[in-house]
Amino acid sequence: MAMHSPYDTVTKSYVAVRPQYPDQWFSKLSALTSRHALAWDAGTGNGQAAVAVAEHYERVVATDISEPMLKQGIPHPRVQYLHTPSSLSEDETVAMLGGENSVDLITVATAIHWFDIPKFYSIAQRVLRKPGGVIAVWTYNDLIRVNPEVEQVSRRLREICRPYWKPGMQYVFEEYRNLPFPFESVGLGCEGQPVELEMPREMSFEAFLSCQRTSSAVATAKQNGVDLLTDDVVREFETAWGGLDLVRTVNFKVFMLAGTVKA
Ligand SMILES: C[S@@+](CC[C@H](N)C(=O)[O-])C[C@H]1O[C@@H](n2cnc3c(N)ncnc32)[C@H](O)[C@@H]1O
């Protein structure tokens, strides 16, 4: 696992501008697990998914590799934030989460592509309750769907960002179709066939730009002294957006896979 998260330097704005996952997703996931004692939200960031999961589970453990991200964790009486540095062994992680066969739901929201996936799955298989425990992973991608013009500039930005994308981003570009997912389907996507969901969000142009600044590639380039969101790109976005004062609906596309441990 990476020693640091690309989000370490943009945690505050990340929390303010990233889209929120709809509550219905969490109701749907919770209906799939047989018990509701313990959930684990991995790569939790500011815990937005953890807090939503906590509406359905007695206790949620929310973990992240980034201490600055965890400092932004939304306080919730049933959510416990824990730091999981890459140096933690599998056994240590399993023990920290509550032991083998103890977790009813694992969620990984827009994060698994950063993980050491074989190590993570090995831990997930151990801690998930058998039978009845469910793991769900999802991501939205970097293309901004407001109108065809904005999407076109967004595709150009993807190319500009390419040298700064970390290897795991390939899974996002492929919309999780090639993400390993060695679990039994529960009817909500399966390996090779993620289910596609929509996540609309109203955004001002300013919020949209801030959201772009929190992209891992833009943040990584910035840490290396390179500004990928040049004045030219911003101007192109502005023209495509149609006016600085317009609030527009941005349709994020989400790709989700859920499953249980194979018998
Ligand atoms: C795009 S953010 C998503 C945060 C949150 N789940 C959400 O949906 O808002 C990805 C998160 O994964 C964390 N992360 C990256 N690599 C990780 C790893 N190997 N183990 C745990 N967390 C990791 C990052 O620090 C970051 O908080």
TrEMBL record:
GO terms for molecular function: S-adenosylmethionine-dependent methyltransferase activity. SUPFAM superfamilies: S-adenosyl-L-methionine-dependent methyltransferases. InterPro entries: Methyltransf_11, SAM-dependent_MTases_sf. Pfam families: Methyltransf_11. Residues 41-136 form the Methyltransferase type domain. This is Methyltransferase type 11 domain-containing protein. It comes from Corymbia citriodora subsp. variegata.
